Amino acid sequence: MTATATAPATEPGVLTGVRVLELTHEAGQYAGKLLANLGADVIKIEPLAGDEVRHRPPFALEQPGVERSLLWWQLNSGKRSVALDVHTADGRAVLARLIATANVVLCSGSPRDLEALGAPFAEARAANPDLIVATITPYGWIGPKRDCPGTDVTAQAAGGIMSIAGFPDEPPMYIGGSLTAHETSIHAAVGVIMSIWGLRNGMTGQHVDVSMQQTHAATLQPDVLFWPYKKEVRRQKDWFANPFTWPLQALDGYVSITILPQRMADIGKWLDRHGMADDLTDPRYLDVPTYQASTPHVFEVVKAFAATQTMDQLADEGQHAGALVFPVLDASGVVHDKQFVARDWFVDVEQRAIGAKAKHPGAPFRLAHAGWRLDTGAPFLGEHTREVLTELDLGLNEQIALAGAGVIA
Amino acid sequence: MTEGLFSGLRVMEFAWYGAGPIGLKWMADLGADVIRVENLTRPDGLRFGQPRPLDSDPTDPNISGYYNNFNSSKRGITLEMGHPDGQSVARRLIASADMVVENFRPGLMERWGLDYESLAKEHPGLIYVSMPAVASTGPRSYYAGFGTGIKMISGLTMLTGFPGRHPIGPPQAFPDYCINCGHGATAMTAALLYRKATGKGQYVEVAQSESTAAVTDSAILQYTVNGTVPKQLGNRHPIYAPQGIYRAAGDEQWLAVCATNQHEWEALARAAGHPEWVDSAEFGTLPARRRNHDLLDEAFGAWLATVPGREAERILVEAGVPAAIMQVNRDLIEDPHLIARNYYWTLDHPALGPTVYDGAPFLLSETPAFGQRPSPCLGEHNFEVYEEAGFTAEEIGELMGSGVISG
Q1: What is the pLDDT of residue B1?
Q2: What is the ipTM of this complex?
Q3: Which residue, among B99, B186, B192, would best test binding to A if mutated, counting the most A CBs under 10 Å from its CB?
Q4: Hey, what's the torsion of the CAs at A312, A318, A319, A321, to 10 degrees?
């Protein structure tokens, strides 16, 4: 199987011709990015002072600036930017005209703030039944808690994922990396692209209702079902509660090792080749109950062996022996990793704020045709205001008046 | 049968564990006809996973909640792929399908003659989706693994945790449950749209290591542009303060709290009965709160320790402060809000009776997801599926007799 090519540069993405209006804070920006990377024309509506993510450190070369946030680059490269104050009557009028040209409106915030902008845009949907509206809100658009405030960390608590995250001897753990923003975005993107499938099959547009809480509830599985199946509450566990997977210190970092007892014969041989198998070649470990009862001993033997090897030696040889071994990589590890490098995964994108190309994460999936691509860097604040307003047939004089009134920039 | 968004779409699923099956569960819950092709030689390991009812038979393949939850609305057949006749039977089944999804170790489908290039010769409209753990090519392509390992190699694990302890990362096979199934569903739908427009099928690869590495915040750019790697922040937010997970009065009551602006900070200070904090030198500004976060955690924690968790949540939320009790699995199942959103479904399973399933993570207003049926028992739909594919009763009987169809 060799069909791993990304889309040929000549073949436009499958969402070419789809116009997405993005009115989001942090949550939802990755959804817009996924759609943009598949060819959609994603127009980001920003406040005149710039989207909040523009102000998010770290900044390129550690110099703050609205064009230099690395998270901004990560989430918004490939989109267009319109700076528009939607909290003025004139701004709202421009927004309504923009929505009238859109296929998808993607928004996030509190239901109250979004309603102030007109969400879920019932009038626009009545005028254009094909319009797809996606909202990402703390508890979703419907339900008794819809108006409760929420953030990344509170959503992780309310959604339950926090109840199994972290060490048993520490407070429950916050999962980092702007998790809620990314995962709600994925659910929103799936809902939107599936809705586009519906449109192409004779259905109408829809409201895609994404809840930050519910997104996390959906990642608790299978632990959530321990309650209805066994009346068992699940909480943080130490590693030995799972006798098969351990993080182990290697010479140059950590690996995670998962041992399937039925592969113990090969694993024993692997350690034996290095003279460090102790008694693990004994066939009695193939018996799962015996294995489980001996877990602390097996752990000590494997741990002592791991400490003499590099991450790569452990992973490459261990996988051949049937142990599921993975190096634990941070970002520098990923960037230099032989696998990601061999697959030519990263994408160099011109970022004009530093006048150079930046190496971005690559495609999350590879389609042989009309797939993911990332050709352009992050838009400057308001860079496309004039261009987009001109596409709306808004005359130059009107634009000058709006700029003078501080509605656009 | 209710019309669904994906009604009329047929998928042959040669996928097991989480990342492949979950995205197809979403499609099946929206009306797609997803047929799981399983065998007894190498059954889906989740069929023997937990949770299972107390005191139940550990060898029963039909009563695992882990398995069932990922496979609602699907049909299930058995077919021994290792049998010489199994592969030609598989090809006959695939002939009527729009899409094949597989997540075996690279090379296995090829060994069975069921790789994309072999199938596409007869079936150019076929969409073929591979979801290997690492990737289908490259020096680590032979690795086998689950979400538990993928979160390690992708950089995701290192965005989380407490400095000075061994890596832990997000729990369990975390990337399976949203990131990789979500990217998979996006890619599958994109390929469907392409076929709708052009009539052409294609090969799609969702390499799970790459899919997960794509959502590691700005960590990769931070390294490639600035040469640094993100610090592990424990329970703190990279910008806002305070943020924490605090113990409230009561048994194991934990409250997550985050003030994202000055307004919420002032509300928090007043709600905690400490209006003097609002403009204090220690806590009055965001930089001050970040500098004195330990002190603030201690002071806020002292108030919270005297207030029962749900009561503290109510006080803070009414004041406009983002705050939420950490819910455990039982709380979620009983959460009136999730119930009002119809998040958990009860489907009547042949071996288990009425059982709980996760519903749709996102709600569609016009074509809501629905449970077509409970998760399939092993081989439950053999007769109907093989008959639909044009096998006569006699042929089916022969295939069963020779062990091609097992069970």
Answers
A1: 47
A2: 0.98
A3: B186
A4: 150
